[in-house]
Structures are given as C-alpha cells and as structure tokens.
Amino acid sequence: MRGRNSAPSSPGHRLGSGCVEKLQLLPTLCTIFTTCVGMSGRRIATAPYRTPAVSLPCTDCQRGGGRKAEHSGDITAVLCFTAGADTVSAGKLTAGDVTDTGIAALRLVTRYLPWLPGDFGIVEDSFNDAEVVPLIVGRWRELCVTAAPATTQRLTNEVVSLVVIVEEKFTLREVLVSFKSCLVDNDEDVIVEHYLNGWKGLVRFMNSLGTIFSFVSKDAVNKIQIMENYLKGENGERYRTLQSMVEYELSSDLVDVTKRGSHPESGCRTVLRLHRALRWLQLFLEKLRTSSEDSKTSTLCSEAYNDSLANYHPWIIRKTATVAFLALPARNMFFEVMNVGTAEDVVDMLGEAMPYVSKVYDFTQELYSQHNLLDLP
Ligand SMILES: CCCCCCCCCCCCC/C=C/[C@@H](O)[C@H](COP(=O)(O)O)NC(=O)CCCCCCCCCCCCCCC
C-alpha cells in the first residue's frame, strides 16, 4: 500500500444501506460541492450543497463517475476529472501520473470524508487505453476510487468531482452469483477475471469473520494476485479463460508437472489450489443449506474441509484450520453476516447460487483431468 489513512471508524458514522453520496470538489477554487442523495435521507458530509457537475455514468451501475467503478464492500468512490484545456490523452499517461492521481484522490478522501471506516490506501494503479484506475481499497469496507476515462481528464488543478456511492451492505448473494458470470461458451469455459472476482468477494467475506482467518486469506490473496499479474502481463490474453491458460502454459512448457522447479507459480497450479478450495466451499455451502437450526457451523465447516482440502494440506495446516473453525460464529449469526435476509432467504439464495459454483467446479475439474493437471506440485 502506498498511502494509508487510519480514519477513525465511529459507529455514529456508519452509513445507511443504499445511501448515495456525491461530493464535488473544486480544489483550485477551494469550492466544495456536496450533494447527498441517501435513501436514509441522512446527510453524512458537511460540505456546502450545490448541484453536482455532470459525472459519467458507471457502465456497471449507472450511478456514478468512472467506467470501471468496482462495487465491492460497502463504499465505492469514483473520482472524475472533468475535461479541461490540457486534457491528457491516455497515450501520454505514465504510471507516475496515475500514482499522483491516486494519491491526490486519497488526500481528498482523507480530508473530506474522514468518517470513512477502516484503513485504506492505494493498492493498485493501472490503466489501459480507455481509463485510469487508481484504486484505493480499504479493509472490509472498501473504498475504490476510479478515474474517469483518461481522454476526458486533467490530472492537476482541475475540477475534480468525487462521487461516493455508499453501496448496499456487502451481501454474499452477489459474490456467489458472480460465479455465474465466469461461465461462457455454454458453460464450456471460465473467464479467469470473473473467477478471481468471485474469490475476492469470498475473501472479503472471510475477513469480516475476524483476523483468525487471516492466514487463510493471505494465501488466497497471494494466489489471486499471482493470477492477476498474469492477466495484466504481456501474455494476459492467453490467461483470459481457464481453457486458454491451460493450453498456453502447457504448450509453452510453463508448468512444473512432477515437482516444483522453474515454474513454481504457474497459472495452472495456482488455479488448482483455488479449485480445490472451491470444492470445500461447495461442500460447506451445501451443508449450510441443508442444515438445521441447531447445527454448528464449525462442525459443518470442518466436515467439508476434511472431505476436500484437508487431503492436500500438511498436518500443521490441518490443525490450525481446525482450531480456526471453532471460532466460526453460530449458524444464525453466520447467516446474518451473509446479509442476505432471513434464514429462509439464505437457504433460497444458496439454492439459487450453488448450481453456478458447481458448474464452475465441474468444468475446471474436467479440464484439469483431461490434461492430467489434478496433481500439480
Ligand atoms: C468461513 C470460514 C472460512 C474457512 C476457510 C476454510 C478453508 C481452510 C483452508 C486452510 C488453508 C490454509 C492456508 C494455507 C494454504 C496453503 O498451504 C495451501 C497450499 O498452497 P501452496 O501449494 O501454494 O503451498 N493453499 C490452499 O490450499 C489454497 C487455500 C485457499 C483457501 C481459500 C479459502 C477462502 C475461503 C472463503 C470463505 C468464504 C466462506 C463463505 C461461506 C458462506
């Protein structure tokens, strides 16, 4: 992380669900425009109100600034730089520019939105032809700042509009259903980017259960990162789907097949680890779905683990995992954290989402089996 902000997280500032905040900042003129559009009707920023400048609709939600607003966690902030005389074209942008943008964004956020809960900092800068994405992410309640398309932005001293969208509280439904978007070509292939998004959501959910699972989330995040680096790399197109990744890595001799050697972090072996964990998830969710009110989540989790992932883990990891499971909240509390609704709603949601998770699992299993990749070291 580049910048950090330890904004105090006061419960009094917890944000209502579905609340939409728009904050317009004109730094050069020292004018601040704020508009709060909240379902809760609660004003959460204190800057003077003025009609907001036009911001580009997000292609995903139509609710705010940049093209690639990521709606993870509770909060999405979209930083838009409106067009100015010195509009910088995407071609001229450098990583440094992007970083500066991100830092500027962070400063604005820290200054004007001190109520944002959590620690956050700039963790990722990237851009392609169309957009700059300085991403500011916090823990659990995430803050993503996405710039408007580069062709319409100036990076310094211009009108900056910051649109903060307070998302509905994180819900596991979206995460699980996101596995649906992985599947393409009549369920005959899986898009890696969407697959990773599903995992990111799961990790976020796990993090909300407490730091006891941080050893698990660190490993998962590390593997997600490895795959994201491939996607961003010069052969990124080869990693677009699982099928194309397998074909590419095998044909280019990029996979250590019998023991770890020159390619210890191939895409194939990295996805295999996540794939095995997906089996655990599948079993666990199915147990949760069919469990009775008095079932213990720790037992369900442990059983699912023993029937899947544990077979690939050494003794010390198995023991650590088993102890960590004991810290899982009781079933009703666990359902609450999922934020899906009543217990019946959770069961319905699982019934709806599970087939997608299963399809992704089955496809990957078949693909790996065809290429003898199920035992990659
Ligand atoms: C809800 C509780 C979450 C409990 C998580 C259960 C899974 C327990 C897995 C324990 C993994 C321990 C960490 C270390 C793993 C690595 O040694 C091992 C091998 O990697 P290597 O070959 O590179 O060395 N890595 C792995 O097997 C990959 C593990 C990835 C685990 C991802 C788990 C994400 C869990 C998401 C939870 C979401 C729960 C949603 C339920 C409603």
Summarize, please.
The protein is 40% helix and 15% strand. The chain contains ten helices and ten strands. It has helices at 95-112, 172-177, 192-207, 214-232, 242-251, 267-290, 297-306, 315-325, 331-338, 343-370, and strands spanning 5-6, 20-26, 31-37, 75-81, 119-127, 132-138, 143-147, 160-166, 183-184, 189-190.
Descriptors:
377 residues; five-stranded mixed β-sheet; 10 helices; 10 strands; disordered N terminus; binds the ligand CCCCCCCCCCCCC/C=C/[C@@H](O)[C@H](COP(=O)(O)O)NC(=O)CCCCCCCCCCCCCCC; nucleus; lipid transport; golgi apparatus; Glycolipid_transfer_prot_dom
Record the SSE blueprint.
Layout: E1 5-6, E2 20-26, E3 31-37, E4 75-81, H1 95-112, E5 119-127, E6 132-138, E7 143-147, E8 160-166, H2 172-177, E9 183-184, E10 189-190, H3 192-207, H4 214-232, H5 242-251, H6 267-290, H7 297-306, H8 315-325, H9 331-338, H10 343-370
Parallel strand pairs: 4-7
Antiparallel strand pairs: 1-5, 2-3, 2-8, 4-8, 5-6, 9-10
Bound molecules: ligand 1PX.
